[in-house]
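User: Could you write out the 3D structure of this protein bound to methionine sulfoxide? I've included everything you need below.
Assistant: Certainly. Input first, then the structure.
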Amino acid sequence: MAEAFNDLTLSADREVRYAEVAAEIASVLDGEPNLTARMATVASMLAASFDHYFWTGFYVVDPDKPDELVVGPYQGTLGCLRIAFGRGVCGAAAATGKTQLVQDVHAFPGHIACDSRSRSEVVVPVFGPDGVLIAVFDVDSDQPAAFDETDARWLERILARVFSG
Ligand code: SME
């Protein structure tokens, strides 16, 4: 019972913080068209907002190899440089165009362990204004099952507002 109550409080706190940081990001980026600046700002502001974020950043679709992601702006320990579409959690998000919410990365087929401390993650596809995939946004935690639907839905909302508008 206490645990269920704690989960609800946690989820409500997260909702509030996501709503605040969404507004802060929109305000900071107002009038800034550069894509790298927009990605770096989103990664920095989200990473600074939540304790359960361990690695936070973008893998961008490589214009020279359109079936490959290359690391973009991020906050955290050294990330893998390249991920093929279909490989690991980021590759699955890129290949399907669907958000991936993974409670236990060790149980995910083909998970890429850039940092062995990563235990759970959420990866959200990022689309440009024309609806074409431009990147995926990857957040890893060093705790198992650290992300829930609140994270997934808010990240989708924030990323759509910043990159698809
Ligand atoms: N966890 C990702 C790889 C990228 S990093 O962890 C920074 C994956 O399996 O797609």
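The chain has one domain: 2-164.
User: Perfect, thank you.
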